[in-house]
Amino acid sequence: MPKRVLQGTVVSDKTDKTITVKVERRFTHPVMKKTVRRSKHYHAHDEANSAKTGQTVFIEESRPYSKTKTWKLVEDQAAAAEAAGQAPVADHA
């Protein structure tokens, strides 16, 4: 079974090896037919303490690291390229 991957914004990076990510979802209200935004905060494991507040990141479902921490930070291509000092690779799909 594939692991879920969510995109969100880092709202806190104060704790060691942990980030708090705000994930926002949009859906149409069943009665009012208006687009509604709902957000939820997730604690994610960040081994290298690389994510900073305000950064957009991807988090992936993983084994439990603690009572509240069951997600981990995903190393995506843009972050890896930035760390290596290169320009990020753009997808033309």
Count of folded domains? 1
Provide mean pLDDT, rounded.
Answer: 89
The helix count comes to: 1
CATH-level-4 superfamily name: Nucleic acid-binding proteins
> Shape from CA axes?
globular
Query: What's the Cα radius of gyration?
Result: 15 Å
Order of helix and strand elements from N to C terminus: EEEEEH
Strand count, sense and closure of the main sheet? 5 strands, mixed, barrel
In total, how many beta strands? 5
Q: Tell me the CATH topology.
A: OB fold (Dihydrolipoamide Acetyltransferase, E2P)
How far the N terminus sits from the C terminus, by CA atoms, comes to 26 Å
Q: How is the largest sheet built, in terms of strand order? A: 1-2-3-5-4
Class based on secondary structure composition and strand pairing? mainly beta
Strand and helix map with partners:
Elements: E1 5-12, E2 18-28, E3 35-45, E4 56-61, E5 69-73, H1 77-84
